[in-house]
Design goal:
The complex is a heterodimer of chains A (about 450) and B (about 500). Chain A is about 35% helix and about 15% strand. With about 450 residues, chain A is of the alpha/beta class. Bound molecules: zinc ion. Zinc ion binds near residues 20 and 37 of chain B.
Chain lengths: ~450, ~500
């Protein structure tokens, strides 16, 4: 297909299927001429999560606060994509300011899972994952703070990568929790992930936390031999609360790897039980500070008739933010308050160090760690929206990776009896993306789970 | 009753970097509001700060000059509070690991001695913008200043009175200008002061401490002196009226300064104090300073102004007034210091700096070094006056030309006909002419009247200068006249 055809096809599919899925917040100006060239993504239509800035159109972060916000610049990843010839066709729905696990916290509407429209697509990059699952676009970008790329990828039956912290510039990603946020690609197969990562990875002088590490040829690496893999299975990730169907699928994946010649070894991540608490203290503390700039003074929602400048702040924020964002701002503000800092934030940082140490120890015994991505398959829309704690537990297998800053990928490894996708999570050491993608690709070369399409594709 | 003031200072100095602390916007005073801004310093969503390395080096230099310990590992913290001139509603600052700590800075005393004032810390941070309240029902915000690098220096409460605080501020201004790290221009708000003042009152063997007043945002040396003096007086009076007016009972309070009334004004007490919720900024990486950097910056700091002043006084016999001119800026003092090694007569060079060069510099609203006259010409001019090639009065003309066109001092003197005549036969002719034309003066010189015989040679010398159109070497002329009078006496 020519570049123009690919883009037209994507826009046509969005027009036809998205009204029932609601993945897309906006399609981007299709009238823009498509340039010819030989970029790695020449003419490829791509959807971008709406918390990543694009200079054309609006960037809402799924919030009423930024319902009409126009960014004056393109995010680093968007610059890279455009330079590689990609066409940004749509901005996708997400939980407000990337806070949630179901895309139900979008201020605009919930997104539906292409495998079952009664179910959530996961979150917070639910729009991006669902768009790829429904084959509206071949690739999409999401952002992952505690699992926001991997968990929706798992729930929608596609691949989603969280790169090593610092691998991809955060410049232009509206911050949720700066020490955890990382932009990641979503695609139907590992090759697509490698292709996207190839384009977006690398140092950016505008992000002090972006690494100077050289960017290997990820695509070429896929076709090279992985050597003999040693896969570690952390026992803490198979405890209570893991859905039995998911357990069986992940155990089957372990068998597949065995049959491919991998060595399997049980390992331990002893501080796993503190992960959720540690993650929510650090992420909410950072978020409470990152979101302070949304005050109605310079941009975004401003209350109609403020009494004074204090009221500009309080009413604009009260009106502009949804309940989950407010809950996290309050949690984070509390964790940083004088008298509580040592008990919460400072302690959480120490626990984070212990969690990192757990991973270092585990990786001294194996190349790759393997676990389920999510403890459950996609749940019903509305099922957990009144129970924030239950929602937070959806991230139980993904947050520790974020705290450690290591890369992890979720790939499809089966379907439940009710035909909902199951995700397999693979993890590697810092900047170990080559090994990670090779391991994932090896699995996809031997299985066909990633080729299954949701019923909506038959329409 | 005994009264002992306890004074500490917090000083903000804007650093003279080309660009802002965390973005590439130029630093520019009085530009069109909000014209020197970008997505980063406007706090637009998705933007990230990147540290200005020069600002860090400037603050390390200040730290070295303040005799402080430079942190080999420091970091950035966020200080949270909401204000319209704060684009992110947090300020990037340094909380528990400042770039410099535990210093000591010598300040001059009126009697010529010096006294050390302890420095608790100096840290880097970003400035806020400006709220412009123009009597409207709304506030305008100008963010040109937002993100300007600021060095905050905090002294120990070592300062004993308002005058000492004043001289600390003056000496600090000289230091930062000397180091080339700040213009420290008060009118532009590049140096701002916040004194902390209270008083220890000893009465009947019991010591009372009045509540600490922090006077916010003073922007002149004068207001620092007045505000401190005012606070000392106010606190003593308040305590006299109510012995419960103590630090233990009232805590710390913030005051503003009303320049028209020359009085402080209460702003808020301790119960309204902020919780800034400091935490490490995850957008920035920690700062490390290696040995090589520290050594290089230490060498660039070099001799401090007060030490150099002491050396100039001891070695070259300078007066306080000489120092004011020659140590007004670092480059001028270095020009002098380099030149003096090649000029035998220190007094003459000092005189030329304070007289000729200073005159030319003030006429051009420049510093002496800023005149751009190279050291070699400064040395040459001093030499040709010292050896009598030109007269001291002709030196001004030569210096003027050196400023305008440059070139060789000697060649300028030659082409302007300023070279003094020292050929004895040529001079003898002028002297003979003067004697012939002034018989009365000659008679006076030979007379027994001591008053007359003393005055006459000077008069004759003046005549010779006149006849020679100023070219005769005045010293040699005097000697030849004395000789001729002596020969006439015999
Ligand atoms: Zn800027």
């Amino acid at each position: 297909m020519s570049a123009v055809d690919q883009v037209t096809a994507a826009l046509d599919r969005i027009k036809r299927l998205d009204p029932q899925l609601k993945c897309i917040l906006r399609t981007q100006d299709a009238a823009a001429p498509i340039k010819s060239g030989d970029g790695l993504l020449q003419g490829v239509p791509i959807a971008i999560k709406d918390n990543i800035c694009t200079h054309d159109g609006i960037t809402t972060c799924g919030s009423k606060m930024l319902a009409n916000y126009r960014s004056p610049y393109d995010a680093h990843v968007v610059e890279r994509l455009r330079a590689a010839g990609a066409v940004i066709v749509a901005k996708t729905n997400c939980d407000e300011f990337a806070m949630g696990s179901s895309t139900e916290h979008s201020a605009f509407f919930p997104t539906r899972n292409p495998w079952n429209p009664e179910c959530v697509p996961g979150g917070t990059s639910g729009g991006s994952a669902a768009a790829v699952a429904a084959r509206l676009v071949p690739y999409a970008l999401g952002s992952d703070t505690g699992g926001s790329v991997r968990q929706p990828a798992a729930l929608c039956g596609v691949c989603g990568l969280k790169p090593t912290y610092g691998r991809v510039s955060r410049y232009g990603l509206v911050a949720h929790a700066s020490s955890l946020d990382q932009i990641g690609p979503i695609a139907t197969d590992v090759r697509g992930i490698a292709r996207m990562l190839q384009v977006i990875a690398g140092h950016d002088p505008r992000d002090s936390t972006s690494a100077h590490e050289p960017v290997p040829d990820y695509l070429a690496a896929l076709d090279q031999s992985t050597g003999k893999l040693c896969i570690g299975v952390p026992r803490e990730y198979f405890g209570d609360g893991l859905d039995p169907e998911i357990r069986r699928a992940v155990e089957a994946a372990i068998e597949t790897y065995k049959s491919l010649g991998a060595t399997i070894r049980e390992v331990s991540l002893p501080h796993s039980k503190y992960t959720i608490a540690c993650y929510y203290i650090i992420s909410t503390a950072e978020a409470s500070s990152n979101l302070a700039r949304f005050d109605g003074v310079r941009y975004g929602h401003r209350t109609a008739n403020p009494r004074d400048y204090i009221d500009v702040y309080s009413s604009s924020r009260a009106e502009g933010f949804g309940p989950e964002v407010k809950r996290r701002i309050m949690l984070g503000t509390y964790a940083l308050s004088s008298g509580y800092y040592d008990a919460y934030y400072s302690k959480a940082l120490k626990v984070r160090t212990l969690i990192k140490r757990d991973f270092n120890e585990a990786f001294s015994q194996c190349d790759i760690l393997l676990s389920p991505t999510s403890p459950t398959p996609a749940f019903k829309i509305g099922e957990k929206s009144d129970d924030p704690l239950a929602m937070y537990l959806a991230d139980i297998y993904t947050t520790s990776i974020s705290l450690a800053g290591i890369p992890a990928i979720s790939i499809p490894c089966g379907l439940t009896a009710s035909r909902l996708p199951i995700g397999l999570q693979l993890m590697a050491t810092h900047f170990g993306e080559v090994r990670l993608l090779q391991a994932a690709h090896q699995y996809q070369s031997a299985t066909a789970f990633h080729t299954a399409t949701p019923p909506v594709c038959a329409e | 009753m005994q009264i002992k003031p306890i004074i500490g200072l917090e000083i903000h100095v804007q650093l003279a970097t080309r660009t802002k602390m965390f973005c590439a916007c130029p630093l520019e005073f009085a530009a069109e509001p909000n014209s020197r801004t970008c997505p980063v310093c406007l706090g637009m969503p998705g933007t990230l700060p990147v540290m200005n390395r020069t600002a860090l080096e400037y603050s390390i230099k200040a730290g070295i000059a303040l005799g402080g310990r430079i942190a080999r590992f420091s970091k950035w913290d966020r200080k949270s509070y909401y204000y319209p001139d704060m684009p992110k509603n947090y300020q990037i600052s340094q909380y528990d690991l400042p770039i410099c700590s535990e210093g000591s800075f010598e300040i001059p005393k009126p009697d010529g001695s010096t006294r050390p004032v302890g420095i608790i810390r100096a840290h880097l941070e970003e400035d806020a913008g400006k709220n412009l309240h123009e009597g409207l029902d709304h506030t305008r915000v100008d963010l040109n200043r937002a993100g300007t690098p600021l060095l905050e220096i905090v002294t120990k409460p070592d300062i004993q009175d308002a005058d000492e605080a004043y001289s600390f501020c003056v000496e600090l201004q000289r230091l930062v200008q000397w180091l080339g790290i700040s213009e420290a221009n008060m009118q532009k708000g590049q140096m701002r002061f916040e004194p902390n003042v209270n008083v220890a009152i000893t009465d009947g063997g019991v010591e009372y401490r009045t509540p600490i007043s922090e006077v916010k945002n003073l922007n002149s040396f004068r207001s620092v002196r007045l505000a401190i003096a005012y606070e000392i007086n106010r606190q003593v009076e308040a305590w006299k009226a109510d012995h419960d007016y103590t630090l233990a009972k009232k805590g710390k309070m913030n005051f503003g300064w009303n320049d028209a009334k020359e009085a402080t004004e209460f702003q808020r007490g301790k119960e309204e104090s902020h919780d800034y919720r400091y935490f490490p900024d995850p957008d920035l990486v920690p700062v490390t300073v290696d040995d090589a950097t520290l050594a290089r910056l230490g060498a660039e700091v070099g001799e401090l102004p007060l030490a150099r002043q002491r050396r100039f006084i001891d070695t070259y016999g300078m007066t306080a007034k000489d120092c004011e001119v020659i140590l007004a800026d670092r480059a001028t003092s270095e020009l002098y210091d380099d030149a003096i090694a090649q000029v035998a007569d220190a007094k003459l060079l000092t005189k030329q700096f304070v007289g000729i060069w200073n005159h030319l510099a003030s006429a051009r609203q420049s510093t002496i070094a800023g005149l751009g006259v190279p050291q070699v010409s400064v040395v040459e001019l001093a030499k040709i006056v010292a050896d009598g090639t030109i007269s001291a009065s002709a030196a001004m003309q030569v210096a003027e030309k050196l400023c305008e066109k440059g070139g060789s001092a000697l060649e300028i003197a030659q082409s302007a006909g300023l070279i003094q005549e020292r050929d004895e036969s040529a001079m003898q002719a002028w002297i003979d002419q003067a004697f012939t034309e002034n018989p009365q003066a000659v008679a006076d010189a030979l007379s027994d009247n001591p008053k007359k015989s003393k005055a006459a040679p000077g008069f004759l010398r003046g005549q010779v200068m006149k006849i020679s159109q100023g070219k005769a070497d005045p010293k040699l002329t005097g000697e030849l006249i004395e000789k001729k009078i002596l020969s006439l006496k015999c």
